[in-house]
Design brief:
Length: 449
C-alpha cells in the first residue's frame, strides 16, 4: 500500500479541500434523515407517500446534477490557468443547462401521481406523493442552482463556505419542517407538502447565501452580469461532459434501489435490516464522496497544467486516503454492529430479534464494501478531473448491472444466502467498477506518451 507519508503535500491539499466537503455531505444526509424522522412522527402514511415521491424526484435530480458536477473539473482547469473568462463562461452555461433541464422535468414531477398509479402503487399513496411533488417540483430549480454554485466554488478551492451553508441549511430546514409539517406557531399544518415547502425555502436561502459569497469572493468574475447571453461552444462542452456523469450516478443509485427490491422479496425483517444498514453505509460513504470531490478539483488543475507526474501522485494519494478511511470504518462498524442496529429499533418491536440477526451481518458487509465503494467513487472522480466521463459511464453501468445485480440475485436466491448474498453481489459490482475504472485511469489517462 502507498504510504501517506510519501505524499505529504498531496495529503495536505486533499484534506484541506476535502474535509469541508465531507462535512457538507454529512450535513446534506442529515437533512434527509431529519425529514424522514419528522414525517414519521407526523404520519407514517404521509412518510410512505413522500418516499414514493422522492423515488421520482431524486432520480430526475441526480441526472440533472451531472451537469453541475461537470462544471467542477472545467472550473478547476480554468482556475489553474487563471482564466476567469472561461470560469465565467462555463458556469453560466452550466446554469443554462441546469435550468433548462429543470423546466423539462416539470411535466413529469407535476404528474408523478399518475405515473405511480401506472406502476401499481396504492391510489392513496400516489395522491400523497402527488401533493408533495406539486410543491417539491419548484424546488428543483434552486436545488440544481445550489449544486452549480457548489461546483463553481469547489473548483476554485472554496469548500469551507459550502460546508457552512449546508450546515445552516440543516437548521433552516428543520425549523421550517417543524412549522409547516405540524402547523406550529400559527403556521398552517401542511403535512407532506409542508416538508416540500420547507425544502424549497431552504434551497432558496442556500442559493442566496452562495451567490452573495461568490460575488464577494470573486468580484472580478462578474458571474451574474449578462447571464442571459448564450455561449454555445461552452454549453456544448458542459452538456457533453455532464450527461454521462448523471447517467453513471443514476445507474449506481438504481443498483441500490434494485437491491432493496430484491431484499423486499425475502421478508419484512430483512428489508428493515437492509434499510438500517444502508443508512449507516450512506453516512460513512460521505467520507469517500467528499474526498473524491476534492480529488476531482486537484486532478483538474494538474490536468490543465499538463503535469502527468502530479496527476499520478494525486491518484496514488487519493487511493491511499480511501484505504485508510475504509480501514477506520471497518474498525468502528464491525465491533459496534449490534449497538448500531439496536439504535434504530424499538425494544418492544416483535421483529426486533429477526432484524438484529440480519442487520448485524449487513453492517459487517457495509463496512467491508467501503473499500470497493470508496475506490470506485475515487477512480471515477479522478477520471472526471481529466474530463473523461463517457467511457467511465459505460464501465460503471456494466459493472453495476452486468455484474452486481445478477450476482446479487444468484447469491441471494438460487444460492440461498439471502440478504447477505444480495449485498455480496452489490459489493461485487462495486469492486468490478473500481478495477475497470482504475485500469482506465492508469493504462489510458496516466500512461506514458
Amino acid at each position: 500500500m502507498v504510504q501517506l507519508a510519501d505524499h505529504r503535500p498531496h495529503v495536505r491539499s486533499l484534506l484541506a479541500l476535502g474535509l469541508p466537503l465531507v462535512g457538507g455531505q454529512i450535513a446534506q444526509v442529515s437533512i434527509q434523515i431529519v425529514d424522514t424522522l419528522m414525517l414519521g412522527w407526523y404520519d407514517p402514511r404521509v412518510l410512505a407517500g413522500v418516499a414514493l415521491a422522492n423515488s421520482i424526484f431524486f432520480a430526475l435530480f441526480i441526472v440533472g446534477a451531472g451537469f453541475s458536477w461537470a462544471v467542477t473539473p472545467m472550473v478547476a482547469a480554468a482556475a489553474a490557468k487563471h482564466d476567469q473568462t472561461r470560469i465565467r463562461r462555463v458556469t453560466r452555461m452550466g446554469f443554462w443547462i441546469s435550468m433548462g433541464y429543470a423546466a423539462a422535468s416539470m411535466p413529469v414531477l407535476l404528474n408523478g401521481g399518475a405515473l405511480l398509479r401506472l406502476l401499481g402503487q396504492e391510489p392513496e399513496l400516489a395522491d400523497l406523493a402527488q401533493d408533495y411533488l406539486r410543491v417539491a417540483a419548484w424546488g428543483l430549480f434552486p436545488m440544481l442552482t445550489i449544486m452549480l454554485m457548489r461546483s463553481y466554488l469547489a473548483g476554485q478551492s472554496r469548500t469551507r463556505v459550502v460546508m457552512w451553508v449546508t450546515l445552516a441549511g440543516m437548521v433552516v430546514n428543520a425549523l421550517f419542517n417543524w412549522l409547516l409539517i405540524f402547523g406550529n406557531l400559527g403556521f398552517p399544518e401542511l403535512g407532506g407538502p409542508g416538508a416540500a415547502l420547507a425544502s424549497v425555502i431552504t434551497n432558496l436561502c442556500g442559493v442566496a447565501a452562495l451567490a452573495a459569497y461568490a460575488r464577494r469572493a470573486f468580484p472580478e468574475a462578474q458571474l451574474f452580469v449578462r447571464i442571459w447571453r448564450p455561449d454555445w461552444e461552452e454549453l456544448k462542452q458542459v452538456f457533453q461532459l455532464g450527461w454521462p456523469i448523471g447517467m453513471a450516478t443514476l445507474a449506481e443509485t438504481a443498483l441500490f434501489s434494485a437491491t432493496a427490491v430484491m431484499i423486499g422479496w425475502i421478508g419484512v425483517a430483512e428489508l428493515a435490516a437492509h434499510a438500517i444498514a444502508i443508512q449507516i453505509a450512506t453516512l460513512t460513504f460521505m467520507l469517500h464522496v467528499g474526498m473524491a470531490q476534492a480529488a476531482t478539483v486537484l486532478m483538474g488543475g494538474a490536468w490543465a497544467r499538463g503535469d502527468l507526474e502530479e496527476q499520478r501522485g494525486l491518484a496514488r494519494t487519493a487511493l491511499a486516503v480511501t484505504v485508510v478511511l475504509a480501514t477506520a470504518t471497518v474498525a468502528v462498524l464491525v465491533p459496534l454492529r449490534a449497538p448500531l442496529v439496536l439504535f434504530f429499533l424499538d425494544p418492544a418491536d416483535p421483529l426486533r430479534d429477526a432484524v438484529l440477526a440480519t442487520g448485524t451481518g449487513l453492517v459487517v458487509m457495509a463496512a467491508l464494501f467501503q473499500f470497493a465503494d470508496g475506490a470506485q467513487v475515487v477512480m471515477i472522480s479522478l477520471l472526471r478531473g481529466v474530463q473523461d466521463t463517457r467511457v467511465p459511464m459505460w464501465l460503471a453501468a456494466v459493472s453495476y448491472w452486468g455484474i452486481g445485480a445478477p450476482l446479487g440475485f444468484v447469491l441471494g436466491f438460487p444460492a440461498g444466502f439471502g440478504a447477505v448474498g444480495v449485498w455480496v453481489g452489490l459489493a461485487g459490482g462495486l469492486s468490478c467498477a473500481a478495477v475497470l475504472l482504475g485500469q482506465r485511469l492508469w493504462r489510458v489517462k496516466l500512461a506514458e506518451g
